[in-house]
Amino acid sequence: MQSKSWWIFLNFFVGLFNFAFAGDPFVYYDWTISYITASPLGVKQQVIAINGHFPGPILEATTNWNVVVNVKNDLDEPVLLTWNGIQHRKNSWQDGVLGTNCPIPAGWNWTYEFQVKDQIGSFFYFPSTNFQRAAGGYGGIIINNRDVIPVPFGTPDGDITLAIGDWYAKSHKDLRKDVENGVDLGSPDGILFNGLGPYRYDSTIVSDGITYQVINVEPGKTYRFRVHNVGISTSLNFRIQNHNLLLVETEGSYTVQQNYTNMDIHVGQSFSFLVTMDQTGSNDYYIVATPRFVNSKKASGVAILHYSNSQGPPSGPLPDLPDDSDPSFSMNQARSIRMNVTAGAARPNPQGSFKYGEITVTDVYLLQNRPPELINGKRRTTLNGISFFTPSTPLKLAQQYNILGIYKLDFPNKPMNRPPVVDTSVINGTYKGFIEIILQNNDTTVQSYHLDGYAFFVAGMDYGVWTENSRSVYNKWDGVARSTTQVFPGAWTAILVYLDNAGLWNLRAQNLDSWYLGQEVYLSVVNPEVSEKTELPLPENAIYCGVLSSLQKDQAQRVRFSGAPPVSMLITTVFIAFIVAFVGPLMS
Ligand SMILES: *[C@@H]1O[C@H](CO)[C@@H](O)[C@H](O)[C@H]1NC(C)=O
Ligand SMILES: *[C@@H]1O[C@H](CO)[C@@H](O)[C@H](O)[C@H]1NC(C)=O
Ligand SMILES: *[C@@H]1O[C@H](CO)[C@@H](O)[C@H](O)[C@H]1NC(C)=O
Ligand SMILES: *[C@@H]1O[C@H](CO)[C@@H](O)[C@H](O)[C@H]1NC(C)=O
Ligand SMILES: *[C@@H]1O[C@H](CO)[C@@H](O)[C@H](O)[C@H]1NC(C)=O
Where does the record place the Plastocyanin-like domain (predicted)? Predict the structure, then answer.
């Protein structure tokens, strides 16, 4: 009896070590989310900052590192941060969406802890609740290669993160009220670069006194630009005057390296470009992000590329935008983005051992959206006629505590011939199944869709209605694995996903207005052999809410931030684990 419990203890802690420690380093962040006043478009407004900065700090780690982020909520409403593109392997508890986590109440803090297992690349984080992304709160994530895996290009001379996105003068609270009441977002008031408004490239369009982003560079050098569309609903065309964009990576896939003069970046997408400062002129150059596929006014975001030997401002008009009326340009550009199948990433040569085009599909889901419509008198958006209702008890907690009636595992695998409903219906995924999801966009605007917990292969996209025959145009060889894909209006995009990551995962429209009105679903992936090897246990610091609120202990309203020294914290943890594992059993 005694020796058995000893073994259980020992195995438990060996398990813990395998999971969290295993020699993989930790990186710690202490973040306070609060409002600050800023004037991105020249007029003061309230924005969401992290540690007083808008955008927030860059979270940087290396493949397999453990990331600990203690988030203090100094807003006046609940918040969750989500980590767009981070897969949280075996650990949807850290995903930071309302289906997996209770929101962090105003005045409270909560510590995320996750491992960036088997990932490299460029991602970003943002607040996932209450339309807050419209007020900021976002920042870049960089996951570096381990030293043992070569990067398929020379080390750049610098690394530059650009968070680009549409921006509104209205507060996120007013915007969400508008969206609920059926008032369209309308065209944005501006496009920001890293929280800053446009350079005054045209005095009739841009008002005076706006602070803009300047990127300082040295002639002849090559920089990696990580560009994220952090906006709420606008696709952006990104370009740098007189400079090629050598595409090298997108959301964790190294791509076939190709030069582009411009790139359409849809809401929630991330790209890395190498840009060589090969111009011999004596001026600065424009860096531009212009709304795509909107009929109304096109206020571009404009930053400045400043060579150290530059003598003056950029000259000439902004570089040309592709023709908006040509629907094939953007789709062909998207199809041209392919994976470099010989490059290593988180592991050596990932594609060599994973030929997605040869795997038998086990489940097919055709998910069709529709333009917003009234359901029970409320404006809602749907997938397959279901508008997601977010219960006050996170689905993941309900699953953990076997509380029935919070959600149903009955999401239909094709559009239903019935009136739309508001419901909490979840896709029942098969653990280690290989699933094909076709996203059919029946709305009139570009939508992008994001899946948490995974990278999916973008197999194909085309205009028209998807049919079985559409599979004949799939790219079964070198489609990129990413986590956000665009779906053009009146078109479809097909993705393939290997469901090897147990957990409950959010599939959502990245366009915040569509998402807010219900265009999301969760994918439940359960290993029938329950084991901590495939899914981590409920974290000890889990917040309880909804029907489980009574389990929640009060948190002192004003938590003092000690800025605990990370190393001593780690040593303490290891020490306690040691005592419990070895000394505890001896004493009983
Ligand atoms: C809140 O922050 C304190 C101080 O840094 C920390 O000790 C505590 O674990 C945090 N609480 C949660 C729930 O993460
Ligand atoms: C693909 O990656 C390999 C291995 O790192 C590299 O040698 C090659 O140049 C890359 N090819 C392209 C087209 O990017
Ligand atoms: C991309 O363009 C740069 C010039 O800006 C050039 O030096 C490089 O060879 C081009 N690369 C490819 C793969 O076309
Ligand atoms: C979900 O799928 C699993 C197989 O992966 C099956 O055993 C289970 O019965 C399904 N649950 C429901 C509620 O349909
Ligand atoms: C949406 O679906 C309707 C009915 O099937 C069809 O007539 C219409 O063309 C579709 N619109 C788009 C943008 O796909």
Answer: 33-146, 159-310, 393-528
